[in-house]
Amino acid sequence: MARDSLLLVAQCQLGDERIVHEVRVRNLSEGGLMIELDRPAEVGTRVWLNLRGIGEIVGKVAWSMAGRMGIALDKPIDPKKARKPTSGTAKSSVS
Questions:
Q1: Neighbours of 64 (CB within 10 A)
Q2: Nearest C-alpha neighbor of 33 from the set 66, 84, 2, 65
Q3: Rounded average pLDDT over 42-56
């Protein structure tokens, strides 16, 4: 499965926590992603992420080490949507 290397910021919740962590997404594919987070999480922990251009996605921790985690997603996503600009196209006014 091809992975795009990138750097995005996303919001993340782990397991039963109510705390929303800001994480950096380092790579992304249809079935998973790698995030950077300063706290460890157990393999199998449920993860909710809100990712620009895609919205809320759900998965579980596949691996965790040294401030990074691999997340296996429950449903495939289109990783290209995360790369699209979030603002609308600029309109020029001509008099």
A1: 18
A2: 2
A3: 95
Tokens of 90: 């600029």
Could you give the 3-state DSSP secondary structure of residue 23? strand
43 touches 33 (CB < 8 A): no
What are the domain boundaries of the chain?
Answer: 4-75
Work out the mean pLDDT of the chain and round it to a whole number: 85
What CATH code is assigned to 4-75? 2.40.10.220
Residue 92's alpha-carbon distances to 27, 68, 84, 85, 95, in angstroms, are 35, 43, 21, 18, 10
Question: Counting beta carbons within 10 angstroms of the beta carbon of residue 33, is it exposed (0 to 12), middle (13 to 18) or buried (19 or more)?
Answer: buried
CB burial of residue 91 (10 Å; 0-12, 13-18, 19+) = exposed
Query: What is the predicted pLDDT for the residue at 86?
Result: 53
Q: What is the mean pLDDT of residues 73-86?
A: 84
